[in-house]
Design a protein that fits this description.
alpha+beta, 2 domains, five-stranded mixed sheet, 9 helices, about 10% strand, disordered N terminus
């Protein structure tokens, strides 16, 4: 008599499939009960099996089916907190009716199997009938409470995980909404200076900015996009910066074809490239070079942004490290400890800084 309950079922794709799976478990429990009864009288193992298994299965069937049908009927009358749980007042009636029907049907099956003509529950005296019902109800009530409590704990844990996921998504959206204005304000500030110094180049830069924003704003609203799209956005941004910096800015982007379709968060590389230009190349009169490279190390995607700028030993006085903080927080929100950002001095003799992002490969 195992009326499985509410919340665990609400997480299952099909309540009736779970119902059938529980039925198989109950058959095994019925066999175990028959074996326990047979310990006292081993020679009556067959009789114990013939009655214990159908009675156990019958009680479970009517209780569990009654629970599902009652919950469905109540759900049609109005919304329910737990679609597959009718509540304890209704469940008490289901337990009583299901136990009586299950016992009687199982007892009848036992008579048919053994050839006996033992009186069923409905034909017993009132005292014995009440005793049998009470005896059968006790395990049903205990099992119902046990599985209800366990299912409620599972539901609470699932709801907590869902709430945590929504909170992480909200945090990510907030970080992205902060990142876009940061890049835009920096670009507009540079454009303001260029308007006074070189109006034709300012016009070209404004055209590049419009094209860049048109492509970038759509990408920033998506949860992920292909790595090739991320590199395309960076190429657009570098083209925008090259209008202002001219030959002082040299670029190289290296994206292997086999990595182009891998999904990554949008605008992930943008703050690193912006950081390289603002704090690495702009302070140098001769400018420098920015190189972007993607590679794979097992199940890890490695993204490198390398510049030949001032390096870590000569930080910009007005640097707030906003972009680096954004990248680290976004990686932590999306991947936890499986991803990270490392910033270090480049060691290939050309000077500058190397920023390395490592994140798990996903499809």
């Amino acid at each position: 008599m195992l009326p499985m309950t509410p919340a665990a079922d609400t997480l299952a794709p099909s309540p009736w499939r779970s119902f059938a799976w529980r039925g198989l478990k109950v058959l095994a429990i019925g066999i175990g009960i028959a074996l326990l009864f047979a310990l006292a009288q081993p020679h009556k193992l067959g009789v114990s099996m013939a009655y214990a298994v159908p009675i156990t299965f019958g009680c479970w069937f009517f209780i569990d089916a009654g629970r599902l049908l009652t919950a469905r009927w109540l759900q049609r009358r109005g919304p329910m907190a737990h679609p597959q749980w009718p509540g304890w007042p209704w469940m008490a009636g289901v337990l009583l009716v299901g136990t009586v029907l299950g016992y009687q049907v199982g007892h009848t099956v036992g008579n048919l199997v053994t050839g006996h003509n033992a009186p069923g529950l409905l034909f017993e005296g009132p005292v014995r009938a009440v005793s049998l019902v009470a005896f059968s109800l006790v395990p049903g009530v205990l099992a119902t409470y046990f599985f209800y409590t366990r299912s409620r704990l599972a539901t609470i844990a699932a709801q907590a995980q869902e709430a945590q996921r929504h909170a992480a998504q909200a945090q990510l959206r907030l970080l992205e909404s902060q990142l876009e204005p940061h890049m835009l304000f920096n670009t507009l500030a540079n454009l303001r200076v260029l308007i006074a110094l070189d109006p034709p180049r300012a016009q070209a830069m404004l055209d590049q900015l419009i094209a860049f924003l048109r492509a970038t704003l759509n990408a920033s609203r998506a949860g992920q996009h292909a790595l090739s799209a991320e590199f395309s956005r960076i190429a657009d941004y570098l083209a925008l910066m090259k209008v202002r910096m001219g030959e002082r800015l040299q670029t190289q982007l290296n994206l292997p074809d086999e990595l182009a379709s891998l999904p990554v968060p949008p605008l992930l590389l943008q703050p690193l490239v912006e950081n390289s230009i603002r704090h690495g190349l702009e302070p140098k009169v001769e400018g420098g070079r920015i190189e972007l490279e993607a590679s794979r190390e097992g199940d890890v995607l490695v993204l490198r942004v390398r510049d030949t700028g001032s390096g870590l030993s000569e930080p910009s006085a007005d640097g707030t490290h906003f972009g680096l903080q954004q990248v680290r927080e976004r990686l932590a929100t999306l991947y936890g400890e499986r991803a990270g950002l490392q910033l270090e001095a480049a060691d290939d003799g050309r000077g500058g800084t190397l920023a390395t992002i490592r994140l798990p490969v996903t499809r």
